[in-house]
Specification:
Helix content: 25-40%
Strand order of the largest sheet: 1-2-4-3-5-6-7-8
Order of helices and strands: HEEEHEHHEHEHHHHEHEH
Largest sheet: 8 strands, mixed
Oligomer: single chain
Radius of gyration: 28 Å
Structural class: alpha/beta
Strand content: 15-25%
């Protein structure tokens, strides 16, 4: 039988079979929704829908700490908010700014704020470690003053920093009862740095030389001698482990890098984690990842750890 005749015969047979079936025997019609239900991954994916009246945006920030202008930006999350807001605090001097973490947090629904401390990267004034801590509080006050246009929830401010920025986040959170969440990525401890500098002439000279090098570039109004002296004169105030009682009632994140060449994991991260874990009422998440001081080859893992922790701070 030719192919055309065979297809016609088959069609007629199927039509006849359908006509002969009873209503009870007829197949039920099934509707299939072909639109996939996709869960957006904020590590990679941009928002599926954008609020036309309150889209994601970037806002320049300029505010005074003392008489000196500080420069920064705010990454505004999609929607009217008000949004929880993360302050992304950079390190010493701030070569790794962790803005990929900031962007992922924005995609997850957090505003993120980044700024330069006094005397760093073009902000006015003189750089010092004490000024860094004070500047965090000043930046927070400015952002709260602009909470409306910046879509900020003043009751959900989070401090998160890298290296010196992690130290600053913990120091500032310990001094501010309104901060519920703070975290450090390869967080430094300048109390431990003071002990190391005092015990080792090589460490002393290394810190001094690096301070002089930075004073000729991104840091203004300081010197290697000034930075070393400040750390030695403030060893107790700059120590992180004694902050544990003042961090009780808060969610704290500590992420270390196993191959960190700047902040020793065993001498800094582990004692810090132990002190925090022993503090009643302190909700600690402590993680160790592969990577160098800047988590250069574990950025995705770093971002996922931050997002998982920050989700509990909404």
């Amino acid at each position: 039988m030719p192919k055309t005749q065979m297809m016609c015969a088959l069609g007629a047979a199927l039509a006849a079979l359908t006509c002969c079936m009873s209503a009870a025997e007829a197949p039920q019609r099934v509707t299939i929704d072909l639109a996939p239900q996709v869960e957006v991954d904020p590590v990679y994916a941009d928002p599926v829908t954008i609020d036309p009246d309150h889209p994601p945006a970037i806002a320049e920030l300029a505010f005074n700490s003392g008489e000196h202008r500080l420069n920064g930006v705010a990454y505004l999350a999609n929607g009217p908010g008000p949004h929880p807001t993360v302050f992304m605090l950079h390190g010493f001097p701030g070569n790794e700014k962790s803005l990929d973490v900031a962007q992922a947090l924005r995609r997850a629904g957090f505003n993120t704020v980044f700024f330069h401390y006094r005397g760093s990267w073009g902000s006015g004034g003189e750089f010092s470690f004490s000024n860094v801590i004070d500047d965090v509080a000043v930046a927070k006050a400015h952002v709260i003053e602009e909470a409306g246009p910046l879509r900020v929830d003043p009751g959900r401010i989070i401090y998160l920093g890298h290296s010196m920025g992690g130290w600053a986040a913990l120091q500032a959170a310990a001094r501010d009862s309104s901060i519920r969440c703070a975290g450090g990525l390869a967080a430094a401890d300048f109390g431990a740095s003071a002990a190391r500098v005092e015990a080792s002439p090589e460490a002393y000279l290394g810190f001094k030389r690096y301070g002089d090098y930075l004073a000729d570039g991104p840091l203004a109004g300081t010197s290697g001698d000034a930075l070393v002296d400040e750390v030695l004169d403030n060893r107790d105030v700059f120590s992180v482990q004694p902050l544990a009682p003042n961090l009780a009632g808060k969610r704290i994140l500590l992420i270390a890098a196993n191959s960190d060449e700047a902040v020793d994991v065993e001498q800094v991260h582990e004692p810090m984690s132990a002190a925090f874990a022993a503090q009643a009422g302190l909700d600690l998440t402590s993680v160790r990842l592969d990577g160098d001081h800047s988590f250069s080859w574990t950025r995705e893992a770093l971002i996922r750890e931050v997002l998982a922790w920050a989700d509990g701070c909404r």
